[in-house]
Amino acid sequence: MPNKAFKTIVTVLLVGLIGAFGYMLWQGQSQGEKMGVLQKAPDFKLQNLDGKEVTLADTAGKAKLVYFFFSTCPDVCPPSTYTLSKIQNELIKEGVFGTKTALMSITFDPTKDTTERLKEFSSRYNPDYKNWYFLRGDEKETVELARKFGVLVEKDTKNDSWTHSNLFLLVDGKGDLRTYYSAHDENLDVQKVAADLIKISKEK
What we know:
204 residues
């Protein structure tokens, strides 16, 4: 498939995804001040950097941000991961990181993102590895998982790269997807995102 055609198809899919997700978000939040539920977040079994299996259920009771990425991304993934590090720092400052909140970064390119590669990449962002999980698994299953979360992921085999929607997904302690944020938004309010996580973590 020509590269131009690939980009056109991806653009159309992205527009459709943003429209559908935006409508769900509007529906959820138009019901009142309480943040609505977009959908049930799919559970998973992936491998952490220490080789241990991690599931979404392992963070039950905690509000978390889930981020799908690949470490060799030439543009949005590194600065978005830096933004996550700033959110982590806000949560640590508020004394809720690990006890009530967590972060989960999931690669959909396990061939390049080996455990060693992810350790090198993640170390740039001063993560608290006990509560910020860097996860990998089977490529096909991880891509499908991202799509179940509402994240578009398409492999460009011709250029050996990926196109994906770049989102932080907020999942509550019950495993419900509550909202999402544009991860590469230069005006994203890190303190507000942290406050949203804290607010959600207090829900019963």
